[in-house]
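Dear Dr. L.,

I hope this message finds you well. Following up on our conversation about the binding site, I have prepared a predicted three-dimensional model of the protein together with NAI. For your records, I am including the exact sequence and ligand specification that went into the calculation, followed by the structure tokens. Please feel free to forward this to your student if that is useful.
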Amino acid sequence: MPTPLPTLHDWRLSVDYEGIAWALMDREGERVNSMGRRFTEELGEIVKWAETAAIHGEIKGLVLMSAKPTGFLVGADIREFSRFATEAQVKEVVKESLQLFDSIEKLPIPVVSAIHGFCLGGGLELALACHYRIADREESTRLGFPEVKLGIFPGLNGTVRSIQLAGPMDAMTAMLTGRMLRPTAAKAMGLIDQVVATHHNLRWAARKAVLQKRRSKGIPWWKQMMLKQPVRSLLAKQMRAKTAEKVREDHYPAPYRLIDLFEQYGDDPARMRVAETEIFAPLMASDASRNLRRVFMLSEMLKDEAPKNGFKPQFVHVVGAGTMGGDIAAWCVVCGMQASLQDLDEGQLKKALARAKGLFKRQLRGKAAIDAAVARLIADPKGRYIKHADVVIEAIVEKLEVKQKLFQDLEAEMKSGAVLATNTSSLSIEDIAKPLKDPGRLVGIHFFNPVAQLPLVEVVRGERTREEEVRKATTFVTAIKKFPLIVKSCPGFLVNRVLTPYMMEAVRRYAEGTPRDKIDQAALKFGMPMGPLELMDLVGLDIANKVGAELGSSTPPDNPLSRLVQAGKLGKKTGEGFYVWENGKPKRGETKYDDAELDRLGRELIKPMLDECERALADKIVANADHVDAGVIFGTGFAPFRGGPLHYRRAQEAPAAAAPAAA
Ligand code: NAI
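The resulting structure of the complex is given below.
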């Protein structure tokens, strides 16, 4: 009698007439497969079953595949991360999974993973424990180790296995950058063994691989040489230098610990396996990783804000082809939409189209995709396409009467059901909407500069804006792959409101004689992506000064900022502001300041921002404290490893009581 199949919920297991066992991942009630507890336990049962069935000669091989169109396996179920509160807990959970993966590797029959869609983190580690890997070449198929973004590195022996299969350079680069790999790139480096054209070819290819007992070849001799000393230490040194260009060790230790692991044990897989867990566990239980996981949860929270069905925007009309409008239209096109762009000034339109082409070249692959994008962006000086648009966004000069007049015209021409939005930074939605026949229609969709790089967009609800318009605007923002933050109309909305007191505190300190470089170094030491003075230079000191005045910041009237503005020194755009700019870069001073002093100054600079976050929360500018944190992290780059401004403040006030994660 054949060995009975286990009862499963998250997998489907069957044996075909040729004796090949097909284990299909299909997590019950979930859109995507992730490695939740039950999923992993059931995989354990499948492996035990396969051991027995193989011994009895009932199966010739085992294939791991996904039954879900969304993809293979995205790694650990981040909702279950609370299981990893202490180092001891991490080690216990990791130990079980390591034993499971080892037993897959030791199965006496060929084990093949057939990959379509996302295969990430622990999902890729599982695939690496198989004897042979096949992926399809479809656009949605991607492999990668995104762990560093969560403050950890692969902890299920993925470090060892990837180095053994792809060699140290490729494997370490993949793990240190967290970059997503296309199947052809993964094949070129040895992470997978075979690529097929589409997911329809996967089953057949997997069948052949089982019947022909295929196995990965391992790395060639010259990659083996790189694992030996002194080459290994030399590589480690280069990796440290490259990593240091991107992140600081005191804020993001994970990549540095991974390099240590490689340098110490790179040529000794057995010891590296053990050491991996020893180094991984404290990282996983650290505040930095907990906070980075929280940031991930916050991004998911914002993405879930938009209703899933109903409004499906495909055509966007943007009025104003300046800094913002041109880039907004181009970004919508990158995301697959069609866009028309209107401006009074034909020269501006031309410049915007040229800039858009540059963006398409950077963002899209292949001439056909770039040409198609160019064709989807239409210059429309007369506004002929307004009536076709699902979303109309205004991004013209910041003058109330000009905007009011434009909106009256737009309202008359637009189709019913289309979203009518303004990108204004400082005017009130209520004032702009006043002359409209239907003022409840106007919503703010406030982008940040540069549009292509900044992930947040504020969706501004005016006093009279209808809820339906807010929902549609949120859907649109999600459709262009940005995070929507719904904010109540108020000066500065959320992001500029909390950023301004921080920048003005920097100006105040500078006016009092604190050196410029010390101020900016202190902000970097705290974990901000850029110092506040450099940031103001980048934004333009005229704009920073105006926003500061509008938001009622209390800097002395004769402060260095207004003096620079009066002197026409407006920052990067004029070549000088707080810094002198050369070749697009500020000339920074060489002085290094004491770490403890920088820490103290960093905290003091940030304090006004935290205070303003508290006020914005009390004023109900956004839904709750998590939304404040999400908005400030994604809108200002606020030190992600600190988990957000309010989370950080609560943790400072009561370290033990701070909520571990948004989960
Ligand atoms: P900009 O000065 O670069 O561009 C404005 C464009 O609008 C110009 O090309 C001008 O010719 C055109 N224009 C003026 N009146 C027009 C009309 N009646 N019809 C058609 N076109 C007209 O301005 P920018 O910086 O792009 O700002 C636009 C809007 O976006 C403003 O409301 C601003 O507050 C907002 N904003 C600006 C940000 C920035 O960093 N520059 C960031 C977020 C929002």
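In brief: Confidence is low (pLDDT under 50) at residues 657-663.

With kind regards,
A. P.
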